[in-house]
Amino acid sequence: MILYTTVPYEQVYPTDAADFSGQMMVEHQGVPVLVQKVEDKYRVIRVMSSDPAHYMNSSICPGEFITN
């Protein structure tokens, strides 16, 4: 079976559930992103959109903090 996906192999077939604790999918400004909760903010882990324009948005690039 071949999976054509942007999701990392480790997330499709996780080895340990603790690796992804606190990560969740949210929609920020109409863009689906994978985030991790850090105190009262969310840190962007990955942009999950297929629109190339969303990757140019500097406010949702990986590592940036957003409030939801």
TrEMBL record:
It comes from the Bacteria. It holds the Pfam family YlzJ. This is YlzJ-like family protein.
